[in-house]
Specification:
Growth Hormone, Chain: A, about 425 residues
Length: about 425
C-alpha cells in the first residue's frame, strides 16, 4: 500500500493542489457575491454555470486529450483554470463571472479526466479497492482544507483570488515532472438515460436528486452562512465541517448498505436527511454547534445518496454493463447539479436563508416517496445477492468508475436480474 501511494505521489500532490484551490475558489465566489449584495437568484445562475461547464467537459475533453496528449492537455486545463481565478476580481460583473464559471467547470472536468485516467491505468484486481479509497480520501480532505484558506485574507481583496490561482498553477508542477507513461483513455460508454431509468428508476432518481442537493449546498452554502451572520472564519469552518461529514458518514452507511435492502436504506437516509434539513431552517447562530451538527448530518447523508443509488443500480446490472450505467448515473448527477442551484437560489431569494434547507427537505421527501412507491410496486433483490457496497464519489469524471472495485470481474450472470 505504501509503495503504491509513493508511486502515485505526483498525482496525489496535483490532486491536493487542484481540489483545494478549486473548492476554496468556489466558496470565495459565493461569499464575495453575497457581500456585494447580489440577489440570491442571480448568484444561483452565476454559480450553476460551473456545473454546466463540468457536464460539457466530461462529454468532450477526451477529444482534446487525444489530440495533444495527457500532460499538454493537463497543462492547458490547469493554466486556464488559474487564469480564470485571476480574472474574477478584474471582470467584476455577474455575466463575466458566469462565463468564467462555465469555463472553469469545463477545464476542471479536463484535469480530473487526466488524473483519474492515470489512476485507472494503475488499477488491478489486487489494488483496485485501495486505489479507489485513496483517491476519495485525498479528494475530500483537500476540499475540506480548501475551505479553511478563507482565513488568509478578506474576500473583497485581490489576495484570496491570487492564492487560488497560485494553488491551481502549482498543480502543474508535480504532474508535468512525472516520468509515468501516459495512459490510453478509452471511450466511456453510456447507457441510454431512459433505458437506465426503466431498469433502476430509484437509482436514477437518487443520483439526480443528490446532484440537486450537493451542488446547491456547495454553491449557496457560503451565501447562506453570510446571510445568517456568520463571520469569515465561521463560514470556512461551516463548509469544511460539511465536507468532512460527507467523508466520515460514508463508512457507516456503507456497512449498513451491505446488511439491508438498499432501496429501504435510500428511503430512510432521505427521510433522516430531510429531518436534519428541516431542523436547520429553525436554528439560528445562537446555537452554532447544533447548526453545524445538523448541517453535517444533512450533507453527510445527502452525499451518501449517490453511492446508494449506484449500488442499487449495480445490483440490477450485468457486470459488463456496470461502467456504462455508472457513467449515465454521473450524467444524471450532473443534470441535477445544473438544476439545483437555480431552484434553490430562487427559494432563498423568496424565503430568505431558510429557503436553501426547506427546498432541500422537499426534494428529499420527494425521493423518499419515489423510492417507497418502487418498493411497493417491484420486488427486492435479496440481501445475500447484492453487490458489495462501495462508497462511490460523484464529484469526479466517468473515468473513475473504471476503478470501482465492483468492476473486477465482468462475467455474464447466469440468471436475469430484476428491474427496480
Amino acid at each position: 500500500m505504501t509503495r503504491m501511494v509513493a508511486s502515485l505521489s505526483a498525482l496525489i500532490l496535483s490532486i491536493v493542489l487542484l481540489v483545494s484551490g478549486n473548492a476554496f475558489l468556489m466558496t470565495l465566489l459565493g461569499i464575495r457575491l453575497s457581500m456585494d449584495q447580489v440577489d440570491p437568484a442571480t448568484i444561483g445562475w452565476v454559480l450553476v454555470c460551473y456545473s454546466i461547464g463540468f457536464v460539457l467537459g466530461t462529454l468532450y475533453v477526451n477529444r482534446i486529450i487525444g489530440r495533444v496528449g495527457h500532460i499538454r492537455a493537463f497543462a492547458v486545463f490547469a493554466a486556464v483554470t488559474a487564469v480564470a481565478a485571476l480574472l474574477y476580481p478584474v471582470l467584476d460583473s455577474p455575466l463575466a463571472w458566469a462565463f468564467l464559471r462555465a469555463l472553469s467547470g469545463f477545464t476542471m472536468a479536463g484535469v480530473l479526466v487526466v488524473i483519474e485516467s492515470w489512476f485507472s491505468s494503475r488499477a488491478s484486481n489486487a489494488n483496485r479497492g485501495a486505489l479507489f479509497a485513496v483517491y476519495q480520501v485525498v479528494f475530500f480532505l483537500s476540499a475540506a482544507s480548501g475551505q479553511l484558506m478563507m482565513n488568509f485574507g478578506e474576500p473583497a481583496s485581490f489576495k484570496l483570488f491570487t492564492l487560488a490561482a497560485v494553488l491551481l498553477t502549482l498543480a502543474l508542477v508535480p504532474l508535468s515532472l512525472t516520468r509515468m507513461e501516459a495512459p490510453v483513455i478509452d471511450t466511456v460508454e453510456r447507457m441510454s438515460f431512459f433505458t437506465l431509468f426503466r431498469e433502476s428508476s430509484s437509482g436514477v432518481a437518487g443520483s439526480l436528486i443528490c446532484g440537486v442537493l450537493i451542488s446547491s449546498f456547495y454553491a449557496l452554502g457560503p451565501v447562506y452562512a453570510t446571510l445568517i451572520g456568520l463571520n469569515l472564519s465561521q463560514t470556512s469552518l461551516f463548509m469544511a465541517t460539511a465536507i468532512v461529514a460527507a467523508m466520515l458518514l460514508a463508512w457507516p452507511v456503507g456497512k449498513i448498505g451491505d446488511r439491508v435492502d438498499r432501496r429501504r436504506l435510500l428511503m430512510w437516509v432521505a427521510l433522516v436527511s430531510a429531518a436534519a434539513s428541516s431542523l436547520v431552517t429553525v436554528l439560528g447562530t445562537d446555537r452554532l454547534w447544533l447548526l453545524m451538527l445538523m448541517v453535517g448530518v444533512f450533507t453527510g447523508l445527502t452525499a451518501a445518496l449517490y453511492p446508494i443509488a449506484v449500488a442499487i443500480t449495480n445490483d440490477r446490472m450485468e457486470h459488463h454493463r456496470i461502467v456504462a450505467a455508472s457513467a449515465t448515473l454521473l450524467l444524471s448527477y450532473g443534470i441535477g447539479g445544473v438544476v439545483g442551484p437555480v431552484v434553490m437560489a430562487k427559494l432563498v431569494s423568496v424565503m430568505g436563508p431558510p429557503g436553501l434547507f426547506a427546498g432541500s427537505a422537499a426534494f428529499l421527501m420527494l425521493l423518499a416517496a419515489i423510492t417507497y412507491y418502487r418498493i411497493r410496486t417491484t420486488y427486492d433483490i435479496p440481501v445475500d445477492e447484492q453487490e458489495h457496497f462501495v462508497a462511490a464519489m460523484a464529484e469526479s469524471s466517468p473515468v473513475l468508475s473504471e476503478i470501482d472495485p465492483r468492476n473486477e470481474s465482468f462475467e455474464q450472470p447466469e440468471k436475469p436480474l430484476g428491474t427496480d
